[in-house]
Amino acid sequence: MTVSTELAKGIQGEPHLVQALEQLSSLLVPGETIEAYAVQRRLFALIHRRDLVAATSGRLIHMKRGLFGGFQPTSVRWQDLKEVRVEIGVLGARLTVYFFGSPDLAIAGTEQGLTFRGLCKDQAEAVYRVCQAQDQAWREKRRVRELEEMRARSGGIQFGSSGAGAAQSASGAADDTVARLEKAKAMLDKGLISDAEFEALKARIVNTL
Q1: Every domain of the chain and the residues it spans
Q2: Per-residue pLDDT tens for 181-209?
């Protein structure tokens, strides 16, 4: 797939990078667009096998050139992104992204990281800005979803029968309360809710006992 002249402006005269951008474009799903990309400076590449990292409307994609030609893409969905950092040096920029390895979970999963060194400064800053915007948007979505889940779970009280059944119900309710409190604390630790929101949730959960 060919890329637009405007998109390829920063890599004119670099056939391998143009090829990487073309292959990246062919990986996009319908409606997905490239918002920014950064290439590795020649000084940092081995045998001129320069990497390219792009921020699209749906994910972060790393195009790594193989030893025998071609490119190996690696992608990180925005909903899995945890943190992004950029460091600007004299010779280039370093972009580091941290993300959750387990998909579809708001606060669970193993944290992983990718670092891209020696990127062109202006391009790296453009990718960083897209990452920051997506990180903030998805952080708010996760926070809202977790709050809704916690409020929904803390709002109901079940009345069981007397005797052994009631004792079993009480034990289960106590275990569920502990689990909800632990989940609220995990949300606080991960920065998904503020201290005030945590205290409000904790009071709501305790009041259901």
Answers
A1: 9-142, 155-207
A2: 888 888 878 777 777 777 777 777 776 65
